[in-house]
Amino acid sequence: MASTKICAFDELEENQAVKVEIDGVPIVVVRDSAGDVFAIGDTCTHGDISLSEGFVEDDTVECWAHGSKFSLKSGRPLNLPAYEPVPVFTVELINGDVFIDPTPHYVTA
Ligand code: FES
């Protein structure tokens, strides 16, 4: 699937979760303190909660409902109650703009 421009890199605030939708796919986007940008599925796998409403810390986003933290790098939950990963999406930075490919990937290992 083709990548879609979501915003300029400078529009992303450090460690602030932003929700975008590309082709109906809800995605949470985070720029970390090192300047890396991550995009993972926005819907918690434990319940129908938007992870973009949660808390960002140490390259994780925490679901506010029951506290599962998902890795921004792998999409995997690091603690219960969620035990299934959210998808990871490919991010590209091109000429100062952020592009996301909405094709889901699951990190298994
Ligand atoms: S709904 Fe996200 S941890 Fe329960």
TrEMBL record:
<keyword id="KW-0411">Iron-sulfur</keyword>
<keyword id="KW-0001">2Fe-2S</keyword>
<dbReference type="InterPro" id="IPR036922">
    <property type="entry name" value="Rieske_2Fe-2S_sf"/>
</dbReference>
<feature type="domain" description="Rieske">
    <location>
        <begin position="4"/>
        <end position="100"/>
    </location>
</feature>
<keyword id="KW-0408">Iron</keyword>
<protein>
    <submittedName>
        <fullName>Non-heme iron oxygenase ferredoxin subunit</fullName>
    </submittedName>
</protein>
<dbReference type="Pfam" id="PF00355">
    <property type="entry name" value="Rieske"/>
</dbReference>
<dbReference type="InterPro" id="IPR017941">
    <property type="entry name" value="Rieske_2Fe-2S"/>
</dbReference>
<keyword id="KW-0479">Metal-binding</keyword>
